[in-house]
Amino acid sequence: MDRSTVRPHRMNPSGGCPHADNARLRARGSVVPVVLPGEIEGMAVLGHEALKAFLGHPDVAKGARHFTLLREGAIPEGWPLRTFATVQSMTTADGADHRRLRSLVSRAFTSRRVAELRPRVEELTEALLDELARAATAGGGVADLRRHFALPLPMGVISELLGVDVAHRDRLHALSTQVVTTDIGSQQAVSANREFAAVLGEIVAAKAERPGDDLTTALLAARDDDGDRLSAQELIGTLLLLIVAGHETTLNLITNAVRALCAHPDQLAHVRGQQVGWGDVVEETLRWDAPVSYFPFRYPVRDVTVDGTVVPKGTPILAGYSAAGRDPAAYGPDADRFDVTRPGRPGAVRHLSLGQGAHYCLGAPLARLEAETALRRLFDRFPKLELAVPEGELPRHSGFVGNSVDTLPVRLSSDAP
Ligand code: HEM
User: From the CA of 20, how far away is ligand 1's center (Å)?
Assistant: First the structure.
């Protein structure tokens, strides 16, 4: 195909199921030009091998100063993707700054520390399953699993780690959704960001009055420690990142796994028959229906060539995780098939859906613990669980960064009305 004649793909701000577009785009090449909201030109990396190479490329950075249009003042304050580029935290930092910001919280998320959280995650899961059962009774047998289970579990865990009061959680979730959606007006984007920072400021001020045994208190101590370990803006940016990344993602993963298993009872039977474990379901869902679809941004610090395509210096690049997860060049001709036996096969290709390299997901062990616990307990407790709406009719979650549906109405038992 002559790529010069192909018009850049216009990213749909309201999102939708990404897989059909992804297949069309991958046919154009593993790196393609895209138009971002506001007519901003960017590119997306879609092929598995190309994405792996790009994420580890020494001439690719995450710092906002490398985003040419932003540096030139051409990106308005209310641009829906602006927070991804400018939030002051490890996700927009490189080199020594990145190591400094990540090391302030990384110890709380190691596999060993996360394993210690298991009893609490189990306890929260049981309480939420009771809540889900109550919601189904109140709803004539149908309950929204996303709202009553997939959301409050990761939100509860990250809030407890950060010491965030229950009273703030609904607002923080609503604000998180607004700052990550690509389908938002500029006024609304500006006010969501301001309110998010204000609520976090209140939480920090309350912690300064009454310190606790939590990460916010630890970050406050780092900020007050002569100021060179963490600035005031970095403290707010780090809290914002941990709250958003700590729940919007796992929420999508649990939701997508339940949808996939309900739509593929033969795959659920493999878990029930113990041919595979819940960990395999989690890994296959991450690959097949990546919770983070397109992650903004990286910028080449000089023109770089990825799989034969030149990616110009300073261009905002999306990491196309949902596209890479179904790349037939990596996963074979049946890459579109949800197959829970795939991750355990000898020589299985590891998905990239939790990232790769220096910015590999900090919360990966926590996400896996939460999702495995949630799925195991949910299907043990409600073995007849089924979707109450056909899978294709579920309303999609808006935006092209996250990938999921907005509600997941389920029937917990086929005996229910
Ligand atoms: C299924 C759940 C999750 C998925 C799919 C996911 C996915 C990702 C991906 C793809 C990245 C790399 C982004 C990039 O630079 O391209 C990332 C980074 C990150 N994730 Fe997760 N994540 C999940 C859960 C969590 C949780 C529970 C936390 C809680 C702390 C978390 C915290 C972070 C942080 C702080 C980063 C930035 C790391 C850095 O820049 O060094 N994530 N995640």
Answer: 25
Ligand 1 near 366 CB (within 6 A): yes
Domain residue extents for the chain: 3-411
* Residue 250 Cβ contacting ligand 1 at under 6 Å: yes
Residue 354 alpha carbon to ligand 1 centre in Å: 6
Residue that the structure tokens 């993602």 belong to: 249
The reply to whether ligand 1 has any atom less than 6 angstroms from the CB of 304 is: no
CA–CA gap between residue 57 and residue 60 (Å, rounded): 6
pLDDT digits (tens, 9 = 90+) for 10-52: 999 999 999 999 999 999 999 999 999 999 999 999 999 999 9
Superfamily per CATH, domain 3-411: Cytochrome P450 (1.10.630.10)
Mean predicted confidence (pLDDT) in 212-217: 95
Tell me how far apart the alpha carbons of residues 278 and 32 are, in angstroms, rounded to a whole number. Answer: 35
* Nearest protein Cα to ligand 1, atom 35: 362
| Model confidence pLDDT, tens digit, residues 42-85 | 999 999 999 999 999 999 999 999 999 999 999 999 999 999 99
